């Protein structure tokens, strides 16, 4: 029984520290946005991947970096309408 409480407290700590880990009330849209933003930030943080994308798209590295940063604003489009309760 103590292990179960310990695991839940560890998960709560992890979820409060890192927003991308999600929680029970995370919607599908929020989860997708977090996944896309994590991917884009990883691409920006690895120069070799950025070079690869620039070569594939036949664009300058600065243009690819700018496009990825623009996509991070709303990676999955506008949020869906929430139903009124």
Automatic annotation (TrEMBL):
Domain of life: Eukaryota
InterPro entries: SF3b5/RDS3-10 (IPR009846), Splicing_factor_3B_subunit_5 (IPR017089)
Subcellular location: Nucleus
GO CC annotations, alphabetized: precatalytic spliceosome; U2 snRNP
GO biological process: mRNA splicing, via spliceosome
Keyword annotations from UniProtKB, A to Z: mRNA processing, mRNA splicing, Nucleus, Spliceosome
Family from the record: Belongs to the SF3B5 family.
Protein name from the UniProt record: Splicing factor 3B subunit 5
Organism: Henosepilachna vigintioctopunctata
């Amino acid at each position: 029984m103590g292990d179960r409480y310990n695991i839940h407290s560890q998960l709560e700590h992890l979820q409060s520290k890192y927003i991308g880990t999600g929680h029970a009330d995370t919607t599908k849209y929020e989860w997708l946005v977090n996944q896309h933003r994590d991917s884009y930030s990883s691409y920006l943080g690895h120069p070799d991947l950025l070079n690869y994308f620039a070569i594939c798209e036949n664009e300058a590295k600065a243009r690819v970096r700018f496009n990825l940063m623009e996509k991070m604003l709303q990676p999955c489009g506008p949020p869906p309408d929430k139903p009124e309760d």
